[in-house]
Amino acid sequence: MSQLGALARIIADGVADIQAKCAARDVVYPTPDVLCDPASDAVQNEFSSQAAPVIAAAYQLIATLSHPQPFLLGMGLWGYFPTALAFIDAAYVPDILMEAGGKGMHVNDIAAYTKSSQPDLDPGRILRFLATRHIFEEVAPDVFRNTRLSSGMSVNKSVKEILKSPLGRWDGSNGVAAIVSLNGNENMKTASYLVETLFNPIAGHSEEPSEAAFQQAHRTPLPCYEWLEQPENIASLRKFPNAMRATTHYNSDTAVKQGFEWDKLPEGSLVVDVAGGIGNLTMALAGTHKHLRYVVQDRPAVINAAHDHWKQNMPGAVERGMVRLEAHDMFDLQYITDATVFVMRYTTHNWSDKYALKFLQRLRDASCPDTTLIIIDGISDYLCRDGSDVDDIPGATKTPAPAPLLPYPDSVIGWGYPMDLNMLAMMNCQERTIGEFVTLLKGAGWKIDRICRFEAPLPQQIICSPL
């Protein structure tokens, strides 16, 4: 069978298999006109592993059928895609159209909501651009309505409520709109300086978070996290912790019900969420595993925001002492020496090896012989079919997909590889392969015992013990 035929067969068979399994369970796989809700989200989550090779095959089929010249030209201009999405969030379009319903709304009426601040606002061109990829649908000339994809950006608040507190619109949401705004504003501005930075004879080889493309883009000597805390960057600071929630919210119960056996920890065991932000992961854990004690550590400005977050979303947890919110710099000595589990979620990818070694060594110095370190982060797969050199670690290897697909479809459809470049541009840091994690952790006094695997876009759990 030709490669075209093989790819077409993977798509056809995969779709048929998903439809058959849905029919057997008397559920319907959501189509683009089905807006996001818990029931349809649960169906997509359940079939994510079956959908991954189908989506990967569709991408590969497009690449196979495309002529290089228009394909590459289009890819070059698709840099405007994150910016277009950020505009849509800034203009509150998904929530405006949620109130409009299935009939949609004319672009002039959409613009009327924000004309007080921008009288010439015209969202039509941007909406039409996004509609080419089924984010919004143009149902009549200049009349648009939400699709399933665009509804995923809704913050689920009334437009009246959003207009009353624009900077608070992301609070309490699933974080998708916030991360879309972050990608289209702060991150895209940074990305435009990446080439220039990489060819710089000093910055191009730096591991310093203050010598990345971010500093050139934002005209600052400060590392990203310190820049966020400057008074003039309040909008970015409000956005950032909400954006991080998007990476937890997606099928978030998986992280607390599968993988590491949280339920088997003894009553009162102490879980320390290092650099835990406002505590989104801990909140998911505390809601399910009430027999444990928790500490969330992060920078003072983040912990200040965390108190309001917990009061709103899990009142009483902090007051009763089940959860402690404490300001702590992870590069300082770790003062908690009786932790059962140290957990770090999306933290190691924020730092180059030079700095990651430092905070991992701090945790090793504070650990007991039976302390567990759990790193929840992405793992970059090689996109070749060579064997792994870490076969002795349970969960390290993955079963490759059949040719002609790339070996690991879940890696292809996830955000790991663009995130790797984003981390490089923002802070001179990286996503890592398993081999790179082994080397890094060994240097800090830890060994990987096993890896709990999840389907993309969920991160993996790397379970470690002291050497």
CATH superfamily descriptor of the largest domain: Vaccinia Virus protein VP39
- Helical amount among residues, as a percent range? 40-55%
> How much is the average pLDDT?
91
Task: State the total count of DSSP E strands.
Answer: 10
| Major sheet details | 7 strands, mixed
Shape: globular
- Strands of the widest sheet, in order across it, are 6-5-4-7-8-10-9
Cα-atom radius of gyration: 23 Å
Number of domains: 4
- N- and C-termini, Cα separation: 51 Å
CATH class of the largest domain: Alpha Beta
CATH architecture of the largest domain: 3-Layer(aba) Sandwich
CATH topology of the largest domain, anyone?
Answer: Rossmann fold
Strand content: 5-15%
Unreliable runs, pLDDT <50, ≥5 residues? none
Protein name: O-methyltransferase C-terminal domain-containing protein
Pfam family, one: Methyltransf_2
GO molecular function: O-methyltransferase activity
Domain O-methyltransferase C-terminal: 212-381
Task: Summarize the helices and strands and which ones pair or pack.
Blueprint: H1 3-24, H2 38-46, H3 48-65, H4 68-77, H5 80-90, H6 93-100, E1 105-106, H7 107-112, H8 124-131, E2 137-140, E3 143-145, H9 148-151, H10 159-164, H11 176-191, H12 194-198, H13 213-218, H14 224-228, H15 234-249, H16 253-257, E4 270-273, H17 280-288, E5 293-298, H18 300-313, E6 323-327, E7 341-345, H19 353-366, E8 372-377, H20 409-413, H21 416-427, H22 434-443, E9 446-452, E10 460-466
Parallel strand pairs: 4-5, 4-7, 5-6, 7-8
Antiparallel strand pairs: 1-3, 2-3, 8-10, 9-10
Helix pairs in contact: 1-3, 5-8, 5-11, 11-15
